[in-house]
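Sequence only, no structure available. Ideas?
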Amino acid sequence: MSETDRDDTREVPGEAAEAADSAAPAPECPRREHFIPLRKAELVRLLIDDTPLPDEEPDYFEQLCTLLAATIHYEYHAHLEALKDLYAPFNPDCVTRELRKLDDEERQRCVPVLFDKFADLLQRANYRPLSRDEINQAVDVASDWGVRLRVDFEVFDRLEVYVRGEAVEQRTRRSWRTYYREEETDVPLYQRLVVIFRLRKDEDQHAVNDVTPVHIKVFKNIPKQDLDMLLPGTRFAMTLLDRGRIILPTLTGIAIAIFKIVTKVVLLAAAGVYGILAILGLIGGTIGYGVKSFLGYLRTKEKYQLSLTQSLYYQNLDNNAGVIFRVLDEAEEQEFQEAILGYALLLWNAGEEGWTASRLDHEAEAYLSKTLDSDVDFEVHDALVKLDRFGCATETADGHWRATPMTEALRSLDRTWDSYFHHHDHS
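Reply:
I predicted one. C-alpha cells follow.
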C-alpha cells in the first residue's frame, strides 16, 4: 500500500470493549493460498514413497532433484546479490562502510526499485499484498484491549504490507455476556505478515547522516484486527466514552461545588459541620469517580502495551536484511516444489498422451489435498514455465504437456548448470 493522506482510528471503550463485539466481522473462511506448506526434502521423500518405482529410478529422481534445486538456488543467488546491493544504502543495521555514497537524487530513484524488487521476491514466496481497503478494514475493527488506536499514515514516505496464510485460531477471552468468565472465541489471523516501510525524514529517529532507512519486518500469527499495532504510526488516544467517564464526573463535581457555594451560602452556614462535610463528600466522590476512571484507562493502556511488547518479542521472526534472506529461501523452496511436483505427476501419472495444464493443476491440487489435508491453489503456469525452460517438459501441438524422460531431463539440467560457468578461452 502506498502512502495515504488520512488518519484511521478505531475506538473501543475502556472497560467495555466487549460492546464492540457485534461490530466485529464474523471469521471468514481462509482463502486458498499458493503456498505449499512443506519443506522440499519432505516433498521429495513423499513423491518417492508414494510411487512404486524400479530399483534404480529413485536414485535418478534424487539426482534430478539435487540438480534442479542447485540450478534454482544459483538463479536465486543473483536475486540475493541484487537485493543486497539495493538495500545496503537503506539498511538501518548496516555495519560496513560505504565507499561511494548516493546523493539524494540517486537515493530517491533507488527506493521504488528496491520496493518493486522486494515485492517480486515476496510474490515468488507466495505472499500477497494487502490492498488499501484490507488495511483500512483491519485498522477500523475494534480490539479486545479496550483502547483506541490512531494510525497516522502521513508519517510514512512509503508503506506496504504482505501476508501469507490465513487461519482461524481459538483464543481465550472474557465477555460481559458470560459474566467475565473465560470463553473460547475464533480469531482470524495471518500466519505470516511482512511490513516494509520508509518514514518521512523528519519522522524517523533512526535516520543517520540525513539517510532515511527502509525498515523490513516479518511476523507470525498476527490477528487481522491487530495489524495496526505493528505500524510505527500508531498512537494511543482516548475514546469519547473514556473522556466522558473522566471529564463529566469531574465537571459535575465542580458544578455542584459552585452551585452550592453561590446559591446555598446561607444554608451551608446554617447546616453546621455535618452538612458541609456531606456536601464536600458528594463533591469529592463525584470527582473521585473521574479520577478512578482515568486511572482505569491508564491501567488498560499499560496492559495493552505490555501485551504488545510480549507479542512482538515472540511473534517477530526477523528484521531488515534478515527478512530478505528468509523470504528468498522461502521463494526458492516454493519454486522448486512447484516444478518437481509438476514433473513427477507428468512423469509417473500422465502417460504418453500427457496432460493439459488444467488437468495437471487439478491433479496437483488433489495430491496436496490428500497428502497434506490443505486446500492449495497450485500455480501450474509457473511450474510449467520452469519445466519448459529447464528442458524437463514439453508441450505438444494439441496443448498437452509431457515430462521429458528422466535421463534426458538430467542431461538438460546438467547443460544448464554448465552454461552458468562456461569459460571461453580466447588466447
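Residues 1-27 have pLDDT under 50 and may be disordered.
Hope that gets you unstuck.
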